[in-house]
Design brief:
Layout lengths: L26 E3 L1 H20 L4 H16 E3 L12 E7 L2 E8 L10 E3 L3 H6 L7 E4 L2 E12 L2
Parallel strand pairs: 1-2, 4-5
Antiparallel strand pairs: 3-4, 3-7, 6-7
Helix pairs in contact: 1-2
C-alpha cells in the first residue's frame, strides 16, 4: 500500500491549537483595566490549580500574562478633552449617547465601554466639549456634549 493512503493516527490530522490573538498596537489600559487583567490572571491560575485537565486554560492564561506584561497605564485625560478613561456624552445621528473610552481588554459595548482602537473612539479622542467631528463620511456627524473622567 502506498504511503499516501496510510494514516498513522488521528492525532496527526488535528488542527493545531493557536494562541489567542493579541490586538495590534500598544496595550494602553485604565487603572480599572489593569486591575481587571490582574484579576483574570489570578482567577485562571486558581482554576488551573484545581482543574483535572488544565491545558485549555493554560492558553488563555498565556494571553493574560502577555497582556499584563505589556500593559501601559494610559495618562489621565486632560480636563474637558476626550482621552482613554473619559466618559463622553455626544450626539450622533440625532441621538444622544454616553460612552467610556477604555483599553481593548476592558471594552464592553453592552456596558457602553468601547476600546480606544474602535473607529468611534478614534473619532472621539482629542475632542473637546462643543466640538463637531467627522464620522462615517459626514463632516459634522458627532457633537461633543460633555466630557468627564471615568471613576
Amino acid at each position: 500500500m502506498s504511503v499516501a493512503f496510510r494514516r498513522e493516527s488521528d492525532e496527526e490530522h488535528l488542527e493545531p491549537k493557536f494562541e489567542l490573538p493579541i490586538p495590534p498596537g500598544p496595550n494602553l489600559v485604565t487603572a480599572r483595566g489593569l486591575s481587571l487583567i490582574g484579576g483574570k490572571v489570578a482567577e485562571l491560575e486558581a482554576a488551573i490549580a484545581a482543574a483535572d485537565e488544565p491545558e485549555p486554560l493554560k492558553r488563555e492564561l498565556r494571553y493574560w500574562h502577555t497582556r499584563a506584561a505589556t500593559a501601559e497605564l494610559a495618562p489621565p485625560p486632560l480636563p474637558g478633552v476626550v482621552g482613554i478613561g473619559s466618559r463622553v456624552t455626544f450626539t450622533l445621528a440625532g441621538r444622544t449617547r454616553t460612552l467610556t473610552v477604555v483599553g481593548s481588554d476592558e471594552a464592553d459595548p453592552a456596558a457602553d465601554r468601547i476600546g480606544f482602537a474602535a473607529p468611534l473612539a478614534q473619532a472621539l479622542l482629542g475632542a473637546e466639549i462643543g466640538e463637531t467631528l467627522p464620522f462615517n463620511g459626514r463632516d459634522d456627524a458627532i457633537e461633543i456634549v460633555a466630557v468627564e473622567e471615568d471613576r
